[in-house]
Amino acid sequence: MFHLNEAVFVCLKLPRLKVVAFSLDFAENCITQRNKCNPSKSEQNMNPTTEKTELSEAIRKHKQFLFPAVANYYEEPIAIVKGEGEYVWDDQGNRYLDAFGGVLTVSVGHANPKVNKAIIDQVNTISHTSTLYGNKPQGDLAEKLADISPGKLKKSFFTSSGTEADDTAVLAAKLATGRHEVVVLRHSYSGRSATALSSIGHSTWKPIASQVAGVVHAPAPYCYRCPFKLEYPSCDVACADDVEELIRTTTTGEIAAFMAEPILGVGGFITPPKEYFGKVAEITRNHGGLFIADEVQTGWGRTGEKWFGIEHWDVEPDIITSAKGMGNGVPIGWTIATPEVADKFEGLTFSTFGGNPVSMAAGMAVVNFIEEEDLRTNATVVGGYFRERLEELEEKHPVIGDVRGMGLMQAIELVVDRKTKEPNPQAVLKVFEETKKQGVLIGKGGLYGNVIRTGLMLNSTRDNVDELIEALDIGLENIGN
Ligand SMILES: Cc1ncc(COP(=O)(O)O)c(C=O)c1O
């Protein structure tokens, strides 16, 4: 269910053995403790007619027949069989608040009736055409997206994943500029193709050395762990200035593009200072490059008020990419460019499932739902409330080193000590197990695996926030046990 890039238990390379050892101890401990525990909320939520089996059949088959690298969350992984609104159920009958949405992908609720109706109607009409023929849902969605996208972004290309969306953007930038070098950020994530793997700024997700030449990695605007050991705002956003230095020293000086996530998702919701992207966009353009915003996680109102994260920084990208929340769970990838860029994509290009009518119908239903229900405002309001409550937790639990994010994209970074900022991935594992017992699913991220990421749905409520906060509070309280 969860994407590979989200499911790892061990993110810190150096003490890998130590953490694995901890995980095994912890698993053992959980098993011996189990019978002593009071019934958890999830146990209370169990359907009494459901017999609890030793090991879920789905998990057994997952372990036996999938690549071992496709790791699941939790010492005892769960198999999800049903979803409705903000909640999911596992195959043992336990109910959970889904505070991660399958990695910010279920954006408007599980089994959203309006989105499901659009999908079912489309399946019953026609479910595949390929891009060799026009199809109405594709044209309609492309028109809608041209309308809501910022600036001069007007021409779309659809695929089936975020990886393909980013690859399309990089290829389009190279074709439009006639150049080959691309600047990306450390701590970034962009997928699993050769180009994406070469762009990733995370050794955790790089099983092989970069295969694509011409990608250079700028320091991330990671204020909590400033790569220059400076403090905002007296730093004068030195990390942005370093992009100039990077281009001059490690490229020909003539770049095709700068590509970044407005908030670095897998990196642990690293949120740049407000001046960062404006400065970097200027540097990029001075060197003839295009600005690509990877909105795979930050799109569709997730960050509040705006459709896209980059709009908060007053930067007009030449290309935007997205996926995930755009389809509420249906596979979809999207790249939109200015006509100047799109028109220079010469020759032919094709994607079998790109513009698939079912994905397009889902995408349109999601965008309409967000608009009709004013969910961008909801993300600001409920996200603001969530942030306040997280800051209360920060006051209470010294293990929280940083709270960051925007709208309904909020994270906490856990540390051993607030002064040394030593990452605390072990604490994250403990909070994971406890929140699961409380009937709440959360996400993880960060280079060190020490960031708890949340992605409540855009239509979630204050009650959902309270439920999540209560589970986190109990999890954080129990770290020492
Ligand atoms: C910012 C970002 N870009 C690209 C991707 C790749 O998307 P996909 O897994 O759909 O290929 C991801 C996936 O997590 C992502 O977070």
Global structural class? alpha/beta
Q: Provide the domain count.
A: 2
Strand order of the biggest β-sheet = 4-10-9-8-7-5-6
Q: Summarize the main sheet.
A: 7 strands, mixed
Q: How many H/I helical runs? A: 15
Rg over CA atoms, rounded to whole Å, is 22 Å
Based on the model shown, name its key terms.
Aspartate Aminotransferase, domain 1, 481 residues, 15 strands, 15 helices, 2 domains, single chain, alpha/beta, Aspartate Aminotransferase, domain 2, disordered N terminus, 4-stranded mixed β-sheet, 7-stranded mixed β-sheet, binds pyridoxal-5'-phosphate
Give an overview in words.
With 481 residues, the protein is an alpha/beta fold. The chain has helices spanning 16-34, 41-44, 57-65, 101-104, 113-123, 136-148, 162-177, 194-199, 238-250, 276-286, 339-342, 357-372, 375-396, 425-437, 462-477, and strands spanning 80-84, 87-90, 95-98, 155-159, 182-185, 215-218, 257-260, 290-294, 319-322, 333-337, 400-406, 409-414, 440-441, 443-445, 451-454. It has 15 helices and 15 strands. The protein has a seven-stranded mixed beta sheet with strand order 4-10-9-8-7-5-6, sandwiched between helices. Helix 1 (16-34) packs parallel to helix 14 and helix 13 packs parallel to helix 15 (462-477). It is globular and about 60 Å long. The structure holds pyridoxal-5'-phosphate. Pyridoxal-5'-phosphate is lined by residues 3, 5, 103, 161-163, 166, 189-191, 261, 265-266, 294, 296-297, 323.
